[in-house]
Amino acid sequence: MPKLDFDVINLGHGSGGLLTNKLLEAGVFDVLKNPLLDTHHDGAVLEMNGQMAFSTDSYVVSPVFFPGGNIGDLAVNGTVNDLAMCGAGAQYLSLAFILEEGLPMAEYWDILISIKNAAQRAGVQIITGDTKVVERGKGDKIFINTTGIGAIHPRADISMQRVRPGDRILISGHIATHGIVIMSVRQGVEFETTLTSDTANLNHTVLQLLDTFGPDIHLLRDPTRGGVATVLNEIARDAHLGVEIRQDRLPVLEEVAGACELLGFDPLYVANEGVFIAVAAPAAAEAMLEKLRSLEYGAHAQIVGEVVETHPRQVILHSQIGGRRVVNMLTGEQLPRIC
Amino acid sequence: MPKLDFDVINLGHGSGGLLTNKLLEAGVFDVLKNPLLDTHHDGAVLEMNGQMAFSTDSYVVSPVFFPGGNIGDLAVNGTVNDLAMCGAGAQYLSLAFILEEGLPMAEYWDILISIKNAAQRAGVQIITGDTKVVERGKGDKIFINTTGIGAIHPRADISMQRVRPGDRILISGHIATHGIVIMSVRQGVEFETTLTSDTANLNHTVLQLLDTFGPDIHLLRDPTRGGVATVLNEIARDAHLGVEIRQDRLPVLEEVAGACELLGFDPLYVANEGVFIAVAAPAAAEAMLEKLRSLEYGAHAQIVGEVVETHPRQVILHSQIGGRRVVNMLTGEQLPRIC
Description:
The structure is a homodimer.
Chain A: H1 18-26, H2 28-31, E1 44-59, E2 65-66, E3 69-70, H3 71-85, E4 88-100, H4 105-122, E5 125-134, E6 142-152, E7 168-171, H5 177-187, H6 203-213, E8 217-221, H7 227-239, E9 242-246, H8 254-263, E10 277-280, H9 282-294, E11 302-308, E12 315-318, E13 324-327
Parallel strand pairs in A: 4-5, 9-12
Antiparallel strand pairs in A: 1-6, 2-3, 4-6, 7-10, 7-11, 8-10, 9-11, 12-13
Helix pairs in contact in A: 3-4, 6-9
């Protein structure tokens, strides 16, 4: 961290004047530097050609720092992943901060470094940004918006319209980890081993799957807020088809399952950050599973169910003990400010 | 406003589950509908070709409603204008809300309608978005991020490197109005006539200027936070040249000038929303002024000064009474949360 004349963020850092300039020069511009950002204009100018995906998310996770990450890498990975779910490789991000007066510079700095590292790992450039400051008590330390652009993979053909009866539903990894980690920090629950958030960039994995399987991937979704149950319900609703899943196929870490029981959560509703759901053509599904298991963040992938013509707009879970139950969309708020 | 089962925003509206879906279906998707938004995916997919500008801003203005506008049209116009300052016509926006629990639905609805109307006036489509909710006391009613993309005008060649000694400095309209309106609302100051914020989209005006004057426009900047003084200082600093302006040429509404005196502000530091500064080739400046005065929001334009080789990195004001003084960048924070 550079030597600065201030230890905490104050309202002047959002003035657009001298203090904003000082903060940017010492921080953002130096840490994140790249030729497009370096123009210091109101926006970045770049060449784009072809089919592009465009996605935005604001991040308000609390606490800001948690086992396995912080709001900075979450904000980069989250938007990179939303683009990946469109079949796009993230190329450019914007970065907008809403800081609360009094935020310690040391925390701001740690978050900035995490942003830089997450952007490097994802292979994305941060090319334009904004910094606002609100008075103490009018925000909560730091909120971040990232908005991303990336070219659609030439072999991608992802849309709800392509979901068909018989399609298989793959989940790329252990579910419910992120939500349980955040909740355990808030409630002071301790685990025997170190459980960490699954925040990760999925773009490299998704692009490699698209290289091999292209249009056999009908739909991609990341089950963040609302969890797996909500995404499956959105698929059932928007595709006007049914979804069936098998409980014994759901990949959940033993400790996470235990914590869910302890805290009274169903892992199907708990938020994920580094997990995606793929709806795949039946003929390709087994090969896709095998490939996915060989890729980054895919080792624990499973085929958890399929799309059916019966019970349209409904998600049915086949339980371990042989029962069936309807899985609804998340109602109310289970874990506020999970991302 | 549609009939809904809720009068205020609650944490469930940010869950990503059923309540988020209800809010979106009843609100955003219906009010803002367009073919790209209607896909309801994690991001929008669109065709882009050529040189594009990309810009982001978060809006935290307080109060949320003010004479002449609200945070909704401000958020659309602000990002449209940042793109215009790159020489680009805004085409697509993302829209991300951070709502505070307890925000009355009626206020949310008014803001949403303003967003729709501002987008229509600017000719821009909102194609992807996000909604988060934070607990009461962890935000302040509503914060909005908009991030925009637009094609660079084929005749635009705007960059700090093109600023030359002799270039003229044009201001497109009355300065300091937005800041004074916000401050007067906060402090309960009343004006004899109705003074309203200058929030407006500048893209149509800028594109028409580019049609006619193309590369004779060397630089465009909108003096929002930090005001005219800060933008001129950034130009002087980054172009390594001096800037001279004449106080008697600065367009300021009489009431705004009076309020500035009353409140102890220098209009050069007060924020604007619907005003831009153009740095123009000297041979074209007079014709550009004439044209600008015939365009929307340009009636009160003035040539206020020029770029000089002497006193590099310094902005000098020639006062009405014949004196000269250095105009520095805004230090500290004059009017927090002006945009």
